[in-house]
Amino acid sequence: MSSGQRRSALLDYLLVIISSLESAQKSKIILGIDEPEISVGASARIQQFEKIARISNEIGGVVFTTHWYGWIQQLCNGAGIIIREDEDGRKVKQFSIEDSSGIDVSNPYEMRMMFDFLSSLGAWAENKPEMKFIICEGPTDFYLINKHFPVYKVIYTVGADQVISLYNTFNDYVLKTKHHEPKLKNVAFLIDTDPDKAKGYPERKYQNLMRISRNSNGKVEIVSENKNLAEKCTIEDALSPRPFLAALNGGMGELEIEDDKNFINGLSIRYPEETGIRAFGLDDVQRLKFKGIYSGEFKRKVAESYDPNEDERAIFCDLLKIF
User: Fold this and answer.
1) What share of the chain is helix, strand, coil (3-state, %, to 5)?
2) What pLDDT digit, counting tens, does each position of 28-77 carry?
3) How far apart are CA 27 and CA 310, in angstroms?
4) Tens of pLDDT along 126-137?
5) In 3-state terms, what secondary structure has residue 63?
6) pLDDT tens by residue, 171-189
């Protein structure tokens, strides 16, 4: 075995050993790994950090060092430390992985992170054409897509602008063949529809960039070109109303303003045949009020606790036909 194969096999071995321990034993373990990506092929790098994320959910914690930047787009929670050296000496900066958009680093770092990540994603997708990969805007999209498509590999970023930026780099440097046609059909970059930001969308016809939109009948659909831009449309617009309302009520502990709690508590399903907030029959003022409340930790909590049954899951899957 090569050194990369041995490193990957060691991580697999650790997963097996840890899974056989009692919960009390697992909680006492903190695993330290030095550069888990070294000598590992491009297609396996993301998988290495995926294994680390799995282990971290079962034990006391994981600490790792790395020179590979792609992991920032890979993990969902925790803390990171960037150590940089320049002519003024060594600088140490801590950041939250949940808000990696706040990392104050130079553009070369950001570009290297993007290319590292996308080259690994492209290699993995090419080697595993049966798998489906989705790059989405944020953690709420991540949780909701995972609840409906658990076999997909979903990775979230920090907004539509970054999804589009990643798409452009992926399209330019990974997907091109000698005929200048995309060869990977199992990777999708997914964004909401926002008419106010439509000018930021790429002008050419999209290949792997998908948008959640509404058709002329008001039904949610996935599009890959600039059409149906009449109104804002998000992933929540495809949710079945019963579990959505239950999740909204269940997440009220994250709200601090009593008036906001009363507003959410007063919601009811008026149009059960609709999806998303349309089912609640809100007027324009109420919609604006809902938009102001539905954000931050409350929004994340709702996405985490959303729990559809099989029929409700099927409705969402039928609307979000990404592949």
Assistant:
1) 50, 15, 35
2) 999 998 888 888 877 788 888 888 888 888 899 899 888 776 666 566 66
3) 34
4) 878 899 999 999
5) strand
6) 776 655 444 455 688 999 9
Q: What are phi and psi of 285, to 5 degrees?
A: -65, -45
Residue written as token pair 């931050």: 296
3-105 maps to which CATH number?
3.40.50.300
DSSP codes joined into one string, 119-152: HHHHHHHHH-TTS-EEEESSHHHHHHHHHH-TTS
- Crossing angle of helices 139-148/310-319, nearest 10°? 120
Residue 63's nearest CA partner among 44, 55, 74, 117 is 55
Nearest residue to 154 (alpha-carbon basis) of 114, 187, 199: 187
Task: Kindly report the backbone phi and psi dihedral angles of residue 209, in degrees, each rounded to the nearest multiple of 5, phi listed first.
Answer: -95, 115
Task: Give the Cβ contact number of residue 77 at 10 Å.
Answer: 11
Instruction: Give 93's strand partners.
Output: 82
**Token duo for residue 307:** 């729990």
Which residues have C-beta within 8 Å of that of residue 255, sequence separation ≥ 6? Answer: 261, 264, 293, 298
Matching residue, tokens 């109303």? 241
Tokens 């000598």 belong to residue: 39
Is residue 156 exposed (0-12), middle (13-18) or buried (19+ Cβ within 10 Å)? buried
Q: What residue segments make up the domains of the chain, in order of their start? A: 3-105, 111-235, 240-307
